[in-house]
Amino acid sequence: ASDEIHVVNRSVPYPIVDGLRFISLDHIQPSWHYQLIMELQLTNKRVFISGSTSGIGFAMAQGFLEEGAKVIINGRSENTIREAIDKLKSKNPEADVSGIIADFRDHKSIEFIQKQIDQVDILINNVGIFSSTSFQETSDQEWEKMFQVNVMSAVRLSKYFLPKMFKQNWGRII
After folding, report:
1. Chain centroid offset of residue 70 CA
2. Is 23 helix (H, G, I), strand (E, B) or coil?
3. Which of 66, 64, 119 is nearest to 93 (CA)?
4. How many CB atoms lie within 10 A of CB 39?
5. pLDDT tens digits, 119-134
6. How far is Cα 139 from Cα 19, in angstroms, rounded to an integer?
7. Contacts by 4-12, CB closer than 8 A, 24 or more apart
8. Integer CA distances (angstroms), 36 to 6, 43, 69, 158, in order
């Protein structure tokens, strides 16, 4: 078996059934094996992903960019954002990706984002922090900080973008 990764040319027409595209992977598997490709219709959709310079957020950014979306990633420093953008563009040079610095431990970050981003079609509330101490040893202040970042940042971002999504009659919040 080869360790080589094969990239499927999406410009080649494949059968579409009920909005789902099937492509043959004969070059990898026997002819009976098919991979399901969903046409997500995300071309030119604006996506903001909080906490997206690494991990799951970064992987989501990659996926949205592959679908043709315009992605705004988020991190706590200019360096991490620049590195993430460079990495995303190295895999997809035509990607429309930008970044915004915001540290959700500071409430003013939400206000900053609101001033910088007028509208998105898709909001991914991904940012999260945790304490490496045990449940018993985690202080009330630490719990409050985690709650503010993990829960209230999502509430505040959603409250900001949701009315705009209603106004344009389309939007998604995750």
Report:
1. 10
2. strand
3. 66
4. 12
5. 999 999 999 999 889 9
6. 51
7. 8/35, 8/37, 10/37
8. 16, 19, 20, 32
Single-letter amino acid code for the residue at 121: D
| Tokens of residue 161, six digits | 């973008």
Q: Which amino acid is at 33?
A: H
For the chain, the average pLDDT equals 85
Note the pTM of the prediction, 2 decimals.
Answer: 0.77
Q: How far apart are CA 24 and CA 32, in angstroms?
A: 8
Please, which pLDDT band fits residue 1 given cuts at 50, 70 and 90?
Answer: very low
**Could you identify the residue written with the tokens 């999502």?**
154
> Could you give the strand order of the β-sheet that contains 20-24, starting from the edge strand earlier in sequence?
16-17, 20-24, 34-38
What end-to-end distance do the CA atoms of the chain give, in Å? Answer: 38
Residue type, 150: N
Whether the CA torsion 12, 25, 30, 15 is positive or negative: it is negative
**String of DSSP letters for 107-134:** THHHHHHHHH----SEEE-------SS-
How far is it, in rounded angstroms, from Cα 57 to Cα 102?
14
